[in-house]
Each structure stands twice: as structure tokens, then as C-alpha cells.
Design goal:
heterodimer; A: about 290 residues; alpha/beta; Rossmann fold; 2 domains; two-stranded antiparallel sheet; B: about 600 residues; Immunoglobulin-like; eight-stranded mixed beta sheet
Chain lengths: ~290, ~600
């Protein structure tokens, strides 16, 4: 029995979903289309008969009309391999682990369950210095393992997204779907380099930005504050006021728009999740809106 | 609108201090945040300003208003209507002659009085009072405002000190008894406090001043007619001065010299061997605030004898004093003292006797009997050796005390305050008591008879004490306001004042009391004349640095017959309290909004 929010009702709702891919992958036979010609029911093309071809796929109608032998080619359906990358840097623990990293991991687990329920493969990756990765899970009974893996994560330290992704991608041998869950609170070149790296590995990418309410609307007291970066301990003195609050919100909106724009241009699904929102609403309303599910 | 406590308005100057906590950036609170990426640019701007951005929350303006209202309430604002029955007291003491930027304090006060009178309604009444020589009304009937302005022009300051008055009581008494709506007091004393009825309006500011505070012309001694003069100059300032002081007689300078006067101290100038004149003037050359006290006058001492009344059971011993030049002696037995006592003698000598009451003339007590009130007597001694003596002292000068050996003495044990002048190992031998205008000397040995050269130490001592008593009985100048005694006034006698005014004297006059101006008064009697010197003798008038403040403690506030003031400071106070209440509601709400966020959201501000 999983703990909240993974109630039986929520899980059964998740089982109704199925991830949508925009790329064709080479993989084991399964339910996702592959560029390979295979034996699925989905017609793909014709080609000239060659000796040794299976005579069952000859199109006798064409032969009757043109006196030429053509073989019907069908698409091959393959299993989906999904890789969920969860940002486990120190910034994911602000204002607390429960208020940011935990909701982010819940999003990851919900998507993992959607994948597992469709009998596909999922692998969880923690993006941090020396961050680990789970084995590849398949089948809904492995959901408990996914939860345990996420619970065992200890976010901390700084994050170089491209470098951290590179470490994980070196060990991936199969293309598939990459789901990157991060707060993206880093300079644009940092996350752009990371996302480009995923694209280079021919992965179908989904970027989910997770921020806590305190990052969207910082409740600093008016007056001077010395802000210390949770990752690199850099200190910035700041005079906080209503005008400064407005200024911060504008900058954050601009930063988020920059991420969205980059994702749009790069063919990446992008979604934004504030951790005080209802997870079910996010999964069943927001994510379908970006056509993440079939 | 007026303020009963205008000093509180200075508190408004402190209002900008409220800005300080907002201007001076506090040490910033250290907070951990997920990423400072979005703060980097703006943070650099904030850090570049030493005081940070002025961050004035609405609560600041509430505090500002609250503080301003409290200060206004403390200043006790009142709305006033035009008073119609007013008393104006004008300080016309000597210090009101001090100059302030080319004008006297009196003229400044007169100008301010003019302003006050100008505010009185046409039907108003004004009573003018002068404070010196005593508090008197200028005119019995009240003035109209126009008449008061005219009367004001004729008022001059006297060369007199302030009368010792409790102005708080005086002002309240005037308001109460005469029913004045307002009582104004114009003076150069600083006023402290203000009441609904009484106002003290001050003119002038603290200034440095130099003054001749004493001047005396006298003969060198009883038998030496050589003239000597001494003048004391006081420096009422914070820096040393060097001034020129001149002795004048009949307008001509007889002698002059430079005199250094230390800051806040005095210096004495002495002159000797100058020509005889009827009167003398000493003047210092300085341009200070008050010219009046830069001069002082004295009358030449007339050659005269020292008249001695000797009360003794040994008349021959006392009669030996007659051999001294300038001394006349009336010798009586102690039982006859009742007949002679009270007459004007320069010295009364009680030889082995003592009166029932202390005499009104200077007195010498020689070996008084046991039953006297001045000293107790010790056991008799013979050939007493003097062990110590006071020096310098007029009684001991030129005396060779190694040769000074009274054959019979009784040590004295003084019973009253005074100074021991000569002392033996067994006790005091000479004890002097000096009181204003009076000197007593008690001897534990007998200097009589006067033997001249046959007993030089004792003879010199005898001449010393005669000089000492002669000096105390000399003619001295008196303070302004001291009456001039007028005895045996004849028809045609007159008195000429320092201003040259000639006043015909009548036999009914016992004395002339209006000596309100400094200078020489000349009494003309037939062809002869007598001179009297009168000088300002009040250091408080000369010291222009600090004047005794006049404190109104509030008696006058309750004494007016009809207050013309509407006080609204209680309403201001009420408004302040309401604001305070509002602040109490508003401020914690803000604090509550921020505090939980700190508790929940922020980790470890270092």
C-alpha cells in the first residue's frame, strides 16, 4: 500500500493514461511504433519482392493488376523506455525537502506509474554530484521500488545540468522518452546545454519545471536581506520592498518564458508546476494539455 | 494660537531622528534562498548605496504623526482672544541699560511692549508697572493703549539692582487681586515656564562684561594723611582682559595704569599720592555691553579724629591714648556707660568691663570680665610668649612678636564666629569679629597704658588696632538707592543730583531716598556743600552672562479672573492616544504576516 498521494483511486486514474511519443524508437517489440518494419497491424509501405520474403505478405491484388510482385511492409511496434531525471541539487530542498523535492518526486512517480502500468520500461535518475540511478523497472508491481528509490534520495550540493546528464546518458543504450524534472534556477546556457544533450541522444524530451510557492513569491521582510545561494553559498545583499517583490516576479516570469521558448523551439514538452498545487490536477489537467498523454 | 510651553516645540527638531532607523541600513538579515540568480543584478545596485534605499513603510508616517501630535500636546497650544485688561511689568534695573546690537535692552523691551499693546483692543486698559526701586504702578488710573505707548517712551532704567521679588507670586497676586486677563513681565532675565495668565518676555542675550565693583579713597592711616585709592575690577567673561584704568578728579586724569584681569576673576588697582579733590572717579576703558559699571565714584575722606569712648575702672590707663595724634578720648566708669552708650563714637573701649548688650559702635574689649557673651577666659598667665599670629593682617603688621610679651594675660576661648589674630601656647590672645559695618576686637592682655617708645611692640600693636577701627569707621561710598541723611535742613538748602537736577530741600525731609542714579550727589547748605557718592553695587546686574531665570510654576494659571485662552492640548493628546491604538492594531498584524514565513520557510540565517 503506497502512501499519499498514491491512493488506489489516484493510481487507477493514472492507469487510464498512456504516454505519447513523438519519435520512433528502435526497441523490443511492444506497443510503440518503431522505424523498423515489423509485424504490427499498422501498414507502412510496399517494396519489391525479393527472394526469401515471406509469401504471406505478397499483395496479390497489385500482382493481378500489374503482374508485379510487391510485398506489404508493416510497422514494427516496440516497448517504450522512459528515463526520468529528477533534479536532486540543494536548491530542490528550499524551503524544505517536503515542500519542493517531495512534490517533484511525486510528479516523477506519477509519470513512472503511468509508464509501468503500460508495461513499459522506466528508469529514475537523480541529477546531483555522483547521483545514482535506479534499475530499469517494468510492470506496475515495481512501483514500490520506484517510491523507495525516490524516498532514499538525499538532495544536496550544486548542479551542472549538462555534466550530470552526460554522466547518466553515458550508461543509456536505448533511446526513449526523457522526462527532466528540475527548478531550472540556473543561467540559460546551463539548462540549454543539458537539454541539447538529451536531444543529441535522440530522446523525446519533457521538461517539467518545479518551483515552490516561496520561490514564486518570496516572503522576505521589508528591508535589507543578505540572500545566500543554497548551492554555491554566494551572498547577495538585497533591499526588499514591494517594488523589489514586483521586480523579482517580473524577472522570474521572464526566466520561465525563456525556458518555455527554448523548449518550444527545440521540440520539447514544457510544463510548470508550483508545488502547492494539487498533484492530480497537474497530472490530469496540465500535462494532457501539452499532449504528453495519448 | 499660542503655546504655554513653547520650549517643547524644540522637540519638533527631533522628528527627523525618526528617519534614522530607515535611512541607516540595518545589518541585513541573512537568509538562505534556493538560488540568487534572479537577485544578482538588483542586489548589486542595492549594495552600492551606503545607506541603502529609503524604505518608508506607512507605519513610519503614522509614527511621525503620533510623535508630532505628542510634541504639540506637550507645548500646550491654546487659542487666545484679545485681552482687554492687561498689566505690563517692565524691568527697569541697571542691566536693562546693557547694549544689544546698538540698542539698550530697555528699548528692546519697550518695542516688544508696543507690540503687545498694539494687540489690545481699542477699549482695553493697560496698567504699567516698574520693578525698581520697588514694584510700583506708573499711574494709578489705567492707561488706554495709546496713553500707555506714550507713557512708555518716558520710562528710563535706574542704576539699581533687581529687587528681591518672587515674580511667580507677584504676577499671580496681581492677576488675582487686580483681575487682569494677562500679566506680562518684560525683563532681561530668562523666563522659564508660562501660564495661562502670566507671560515672561525676555530681551537680551548673555554677554561678556567688565565692571568696577569697588572703589575706595582713604587716608593711609590714622596718623598718615596720605591719600590712597583702590579699585576692584571684575571680569565677567571667559577670557583674560588687559584694560586701562584711570583715576580722575574733577574730570582730569590723576593717574592711570594697565591692569590685567583674569577670566571670571577680579584684579585690584591701587593708586597713591594723588592730589586732593572733593570727589574721585575711577573708570576703565573698555567697550563692553554695560557702560554704567565701567565707572565708579568716591568722595574724598575728610581729615578727622578717632573719637574713643573708654569705659574703664582705670581712667589713667585709658587716658594715655590721648597722646596719640588724631585721637580724642572720653573716659567714663562702667557705671556711667548707660548715659553715654549709643552716641556716635569711632570706637568704644571696654577696659576690664563689658556692656549688657553689644554696642552699636566698633568696640575693643580688653580683658573682659568672666560674665561676657563673647569669650570664655582661661587661667591667668604671666610673661606670655606669642606662639603664632595672623599675617598679613592690619593688626599684626610691623609688630616684633619676639619682643611682644604681655606681663599679664588670660587666654581666650571664643564663643562666637571670628578669627584668632594672636595666639599663645595656652590659647588665643587676640580675637577679632568682623560683621558688615562693624568690628569687635577682644584682647586677653592689656595694651594700656600707651607708653609710646617705651614699649614699642605694644605701642605699634596699639596704633594698629586704632587704625583698624579707624578704617572701619571711614566714609565709604554707598549703593544706589541708599538714602542721603538730611539733618538740620535750612531754608534754601538744595540737593544737586548727578544729572545736574537741583532739588530744593525742605525741613520735613529726613533723608533723600531717590538716589537711583550712580554718581556724586551734592548737598548745598549755605555756602558749603557735602558730597555723597552712590554707585551701582549689585554684581548680578554687571554679570550679563547668566541671569537668574524667572520660573513661573503655575500659580498664576489659576489666579486670573478671566482666562482668555482656550486650551486644546487635551484633544491633541486624545488624538495621539487614538493613533497609538491604531498603531497597536496595525503594527502587530504586519509582524504576524512575516514572522511565520521566517519560521517555516527559511533555514538557518547564520
Amino acid at each position: 500500500m503506497l502512501s499519499a498521494p498514491f491512493t488506489p483511486e489516484f493510481l487507477s486514474q493514472l492507469e487510464t493514461l498512456r504516454l505519447r511519443t513523438r519519435k520512433e524508437f528502435l526497441g523490443h517489440p511492444g506497443s510503440y511504433s518503431s522505424p523498423r518494419r515489423g509485424t504490427s497491424l499498422e501498414f507502412s509501405d510496399y517494396r519489391r519482392y525479393a527472394p526469401g520474403d515471406d509469401l504471406r505478405y505478397l499483395d496479390w491484388g497489385i500482382y493481378a493488376r500489374s503482374d508485379r510482385l510487391y510485398i506489404k511492409v508493416f510497422r514494427e511496434e516496440v516497448d517504450l523506455f522512459a528515463y526520468i531525471f529528477i533534479d536532486a541539487s540543494a536548491s530542490m530542498t528550499f524551503p524544505s525537502r517536503e515542500q519542493k523535492f517531495l512534490p517533484a518526486s511525486h510528479v516523477a512517480l506519477a509519470l513512472a506509474y503511468v509508464i509501468l502500468a503500460n508495461h513499459d520500461h522506466v528508469k529514475l535518475h537523480l541529477l546531483q554530484h555522483g547521483g545514482g540511478a535506479s534499475p530499469i523497472y517494468r510492470g506496475r508491481r515495481r512501483m514500490r521500488d520506484c517510491v523507495e528509490f525516490a524516498d532514499s534520495a538525499a538532495p544536496g550540493g550544486g548542479l551542472e545540468m549538462a555534466a550530470a546528464l552526460g554522466e547518466h546518458l553515458k550508461r543509456l543504450h536505448r533511446p526513449g522518452k526523457a522526462i527532466l524534472i528540475s527548478d531550472f534556477l540556473m543561467p540559460a546556457p546551463g539548462y540549454q546545454k543539458g537539454l541539447n544533450l538529451l536531444r543529441a541522444f535522440n530522446l523525446d524530451i519533457v521538461a517539467i519545471q518545479v518551483l515552490s510557492r516561496y520561490e514564486v513569491d518570496p516572503p522576505f521582510p521589508n528591508g535589507g536581506v543578505a540572500l545566500i545561494d543554497s548551492e554555491n553559498q554566494e551572498e547577495v545583499k538585497y533591499q526588499w520592498s514591494a517594488a523589489a517583490r514586483r521586480d523579482y516576479r517580473t524577472k522570474l516570469a521572464h526566466h520561465n518564458a525563456e525556458i518555455r521558448s527554448f523548449c518550444h523551439q527545440s521540440g520539447i514538452h514544457y510544463s510548470f508546476y508550483v508545488t502547492d498545487r494539487d498533484l492530480a490536477e497537474f497530472v490530469f489537467a496540465t500535462l494532457p494539455a501539452i499532449r504528453l498523454f495519448k | 494660537m499660542e503655546f504655554l510651553n513653547p520650549a517643547a516645540l524644540f522637540g519638533l527638531l527631533a522628528l527627523p531622528l525618526l528617519l534614522i532607523p530607515y535611512l541607516v541600513r540595518k545589518k541585513p538579515r541573512r537568509l538562505v534562498f534556493s538560488s540568487v540568480l534572479l537577485f544578482l543584478e538588483a542586489g548589486a545596485q542595492a549594495g552600492g548605496r551606503p545607506l541603502g534605499r529609503i524604505n518608508l513603510p506607512p507605519i513610519f508616517f503614522l509614527h511621525l504623526l503620533l510623535l508630532a501630535l505628542l510634541i504639540l500636546a506637550l507645548s500646550e497650544p491654546v487659542f487666545s482672544v484679545r485681552p482687554t485688561n492687561v498689566a505690563i511689568l517692565l524691568d527697569n534695573s541697571a542691566s536693562m541699560q546693557a547694549m544689544e546690537d546698538g540698542r539698550t535692552r530697555l528699548s528692546l523691551a519697550q518695542e516688544k511692549i508696543g507690540d503687545v499693546i498694539g494687540e489690545i483692543g481699542l477699549g482695553g486698559q493697560v496698567d504699567l508697572y516698574l520693578t525698581t526701586p520697588r514694584l510700583t504702578k506708573v499711574q494709578e488710573e489705567p492707561f488706554t493703549p495709546a496713553q500707555a505707548l506714550n507713557a512708555l517712551k518716558d520710562i528710563k532704567a535706574y542704576d539699581l539692582g533687581d529687587p528681591p521679588l518672587d515674580y511667580d507670586r507677584v504676577l499671580s497676586q496681581l492677576a488675582r487681586e487686580q483681575g487682569y486677563e494677562r500679566v506680562y513681565f518684560f525683563t532681561d532675565h530668562p523666563g522659564a515656564g508660562q501660564t495661562a495668565v502670566a507671560r515672561v518676555i525676555s530681551v537680551g542675550r548673555p554677554q561678556a562684561n567688565l565692571a568696577v565693583t569697588a572703589f575706595d579713597v582713604h587716608r593711609a592711616s590714622l596718623i598718615n594723611a596720605r591719600l590712597q585709592a583702590s579699585a576692584v575690577v571684575a571680569n565677567f567673561s571667559a577670557k583674560d582682559e588687559k584694560i586701562k584704568i584711570a583715576l580722575k578728579g574733577r574730570g582730569a586724569t590723576l593717574a592711570s595704569r594697565e591692569l590685567p584681569v583674569p577670566a571670571a576673576g577680579t584684579a585690584t588697582a591701587t593708586f597713591e599720592g594723588f592730589a586732593e579733590h572733593l570727589s574721585y572717579e575711577v573708570a576703565i576703558e573698555t567697550r563692553d555691553a554695560l557702560a554704567l559699571d565701567n565707572r565708579r565714584f568716591a568722595v574724598a575722606p575728610v581729615p578727622r579724629n578717632l573719637r574713643i569712648l573708654a569705659v574703664t575702672p582705670r581712667p589713667q590707663a585709658a587716658a594715655s591714648l590721648k597722646s596719640i595724634q588724631g585721637v580724642s578720648v572720653d573716659v567714663i566708669s562702667p557705671s556711667d556707660y548707660a548715659k553715654f552708650g549709643g552716641r556716635d563714637y569711632g570706637l568704644e573701649v571696654f577696659h576690664f568691663s563689658t556692656p549688657e548688650q553689644l554696642p552699636s559702635n566698633p568696640a575693643l574689649f580688653i580683658l573682659p570680665p568672666e560674665s561676657n557673651s563673647l569669650v570664655d577666659l582661661g587661667a591667668p598667665l604671666s610673661n606670655v610668649q606669642v606662639s603664632s599670629w595672623r599675617e598679613p593682617h592690619g593688626l599684626t603688621r610691623y609688630v616684633n612678636f619676639s619682643l611682644f610679651r604681655p606681663t599679664y594675660a588670660r587666654p581666650l576661648k571664643p564663643q562666637s564666629a571670628g578669627q584668632v589674630v594672636i595666639e599663645s601656647p595656652a590659647g588665643a590672645l587676640a580675637f577679632a569679629v568682623e560683621r558688615p559695618g562693624m568690628r569687635y576686637l577682644i584682647l586677653g592682655f592689656d595694651p594700656l597704658p600707651y607708653l609710646g617708645r617705651e614699649n614699642l611692640p605694644m605701642s605699634i600693636f596699639t596704633l594698629n588696632f586704632l587704625d583698624w577701627f579707624f578704617d572701619s569707621g571711614g566714609l565709604r561710598s554707598q549703593a544706589t538707592g541708599a538714602p542721603i541723611p538730611l539733618t538740620a535742613v535750612q531754608p534754601g538748602d538744595s540737593l544737586v543730583t548727578p544729572a545736574g537736577e537741583k532739588i530744593a530741600l525742605k525741613s520735613a525731609f529726613g533723608s533723600f531716598a531717590a538716589t537711583f542714579h550712580q554718581g556724586i550727589y551734592q548737598r548745598v547748605r549755605g555756602g558749603a556743600s557735602e558730597l555723597y557718592a552712590r554707585n551701582l553695587d549689585d554684581l548680578g546686574e554687571s554679570d550679563l552672562r547668566t541671569s537668574m531665570p524667572i520660573e513661573l510654576r503655575g500659580d498664576a494659571a489659576n489666579s486670573g479672573s478671566a482666562s482668555v485662552l482656550f486650551s486644546f492640548w487635551p484633544y491633541l493628546l486624545l488624538a495621539s492616544l487614538l493613533l497609538l491604538l491604531a498603531e497597536w492594531f496595525i503594527n502587530p498584524r504586519w509582524a504576524r504576516r512575516a514572522a511565520p514565513a521566517m519560521r517555516r520557510g527559511w533555514r538557518g540565517a547564520a
